[in-house]
Predict the 3D structure of the following.
Amino acid sequence: MDDRKTRIAQQFMAALPHAKALGMRLVSMGDGRARIEMDYAPHLVGDPETGVIHGGAVSALMDTCCGAAAMSHPASPGGTATIDLRIDYMRGAVPGQAIRAEAECYHVTRSVAFVRARAMDDDEDRPVATATGTFTVEGG
Amino acid sequence: MARPRPEPVQVVKQRRDAALKALVEGVPYIGFLGVQFERRGDELTAVMPFDEKLIGNPLLPALHGGATAAFLEITAIIGLSWTMLWEEIESGAVDPESLAGGSLPRLPKTIDFTVDYLRSGLPRDAYARAQVNRSGRRYASVRVEAWQDNRARPFAQATGHFLMPRRDG
């Protein structure tokens, strides 16, 4: 990533206190695509028996990543807000492993951005979760 | 016919509150978000007190969609587990002290969860209630509604499907 993109990525995350609190890192963002990573942490656990991360933390990662993809689309001039987001949980993420989300904004109208995403742990062939969402297009 | 004397109200309340406390405090992520549960009989209301770390858009400012989604999912899972546990708490089959000691029942697993964002979440406390619409042996369907200042103006709602834990017997 060049300096300018790195700066944009850092500013994007710094502007989102909740994403920062969950330890999210923006890996890349541009042309309607985004990748964000989140490290495993004990306070994110949802099932004390297994140590698996809470679905809500995965939702927060997916929402942030989908929003970043929507905002970075060339046809999207400004900010965005989630209209709806559906998450399907395929399996529990392996405790101790970071979760990586990648989102793609595959269609944009004047008012709505359509986004899909998936989340993986170290086993990239078996997604932990997938998401589809719609987001507002603002500032147009 | 002689009926057994009802248990003193304090004993009943203490048992229910201890079971709820054990259920909620067993989940680290609930503590991290600061979500609490208030109980009236079997009815639960989830409360997410406002905190800076829940903010997603500092310009508005508004709650992060992910914080809202997590709040709703927590409310759904605890609501469903509570419904599942209630009979056993009432009959005394579940001992709150053993719950507190760490022998928590297995929690339902989320299959899918869909959140509708109705208006932006304000930098205030948020409340939510879950309704279990169907709870079978294997699958359950739960609806959740969240509001802030005004109960009649929900800011988010969600439905989710859950895989029920296998129960012995």
User: Anything to note?
Assistant: The mean pLDDT of chain B is 92.
